[in-house]
Design a protein that fits this description.
Elements lengths: L1 E5 L3 H13 L3 E5 L2 H9 L5 E4 L8 H10 L6 E5 L4 H9 L4 E4 L4 H15 L6 E4 L2 E4 L4 E4 L2 E2 L4 H12 L5 E2 H8 L10 H12 L6 E3 L3 E3 L5
Parallel strand pairs: 1-2, 1-3, 3-4, 4-5
Antiparallel strand pairs: 6-7, 7-8, 8-9, 10-12, 11-12
Helix pairs in contact: 2-3, 6-8
The protein binds calcium ion (CA).
Length: about 220
């Protein structure tokens, strides 16, 4: 899951980016409205965290532009403006949620999980497939109730595959979920994570679809 942070306060943005990464998200940051619109239009993110006081335009206009282009990407407004009118305005313009600064990061994460659940086919925080269980709230995974020790990227690969079970994820799709802009990606990075994951998971759990990508199937 890729989060776009639209925020001109660099310190806040970097802190947010760090804590989102610790929660297992990939997080990119832009500091103005024009870049935010471009990133959304080019599908570079799954959820937007939007500040309203931006240097080049009002965050509400960013939201308006996104919705005018018929894009339904979840948008959470995160702003110091906390009057009821601002809140109503934001929600009426198509924001999915609204959180006032200062905020408690754990509340932000909980709200992001709601948006995340709304996005996909996944409506529970626990996904279980063939003895492998993934708790996306606790960021824990287990096989037959035995805890799995996964690196952050391994967890992200497993999560992407389990949330899309029965569908094939291409190497490029997995890569885009794992890595942020400008992050150095080895050409075999996804293969390496899959290789490590396979050593920890039941035999045959992750299937290779030759030339296309990877998948896991339910119940087999
Ligand atoms: Ca601001």
């Amino acid at each position: 899951m890729k989060i776009l942070i639209v925020e001109d306060d660099l310190q806040l943005a970097q802190g947010l980016q760090r804590s989102l990464r610790n929660e297992g998200y990939a997080a990119n940051h832009v500091n103005n409205g024009a870049r935010a619109i471009l990133s959304v239009q080019t599908n570079e993110c799954d959820i937007v965290i939007l500040d309203l006081g931006l240097p080049d335009m009002d965050g509400l206009d960013v939201l308006k532009k996104i919705r005018q282009s018929k894009n339904n990407i979840p948008v959470l407004i995160l702003t110091a403006r906390d009057s009821i009118n601002e809140k109503i305005n934001g929600l009426d313009l198509g924001a999915d949620d609204y959180l006032a600064k200062p905020f408690d990061p754990s509340e932000l994460f909980a709200r992001l999980r709601v948006l995340e659940r709304r996005l996909g086919t996944v409506n529970t925080s626990i996904i279980k497939i063939a003895g492998v269980s993934l708790d996306t709230n606790a960021h824990m995974s287990s096989v037959d109730d035995k805890h799995l020790d996964l690196s952050r990227k391994e967890y992200m690969v497993l999560k992407a595959l389990m949330e899309n079970s029965g569908r094939i994820q291409s190497r490029e799709q997995l890569e885009s979920k794992l890595y942020e802009w400008g992050e150095e990606v080895a050409s075999n990075a996804v293969e390496v994570h899959i290789h490590h994951l396979r050593k920890k998971l039941p035999v045959g759990f992750i299937k290779t679809v030759r030339g296309i990508g990877y998948t896991i199937g339910g119940g087999k």
